[in-house]
Design a protein that fits this description.
The chain has about 60 residues and is α+β, with helices and mostly antiparallel strands. The protein is built from 2 helices and 4 strands; from the N terminus they run βαββαβ. Bound molecules: iron/sulfur cluster (SF4) (2 copies).
């Protein structure tokens, strides 16, 4: 699953748009990753302009 660095995230929504399996969503607490959907492709990690995302071992 994806771990989000809330201090870096700009809430631009770009990662949400690109995730092929719609695993990311914006909540009142910031970007959240649905552990049941994420396939760990790392596309969002590579995309994020401020390097706010990383793969977290479960
Ligand atoms: S792409 Fe990066 S900065 Fe933009 S919402 Fe996603 S995690 Fe936040
Ligand atoms: S790692 Fe891939 S599947 Fe998981 S949230 Fe990011 S883009 Fe979506």
């Amino acid at each position: 699953m994806i771990e989000v660095n809330k201090n870096k995230c700009l809430r631009c929504g770009g990662c949400i748009s690109l995730c092929a399996v719609s695993a990311l969503m914006l909540t009142e607490h910031g970007i959240k990753c649905d552990i049941n959907k994420c396939v760990n492709c790392e596309a969002c990690v590579r995309f994020c302009p401020v390097d706010a995302l990383k793969i977290k071992d479960e």
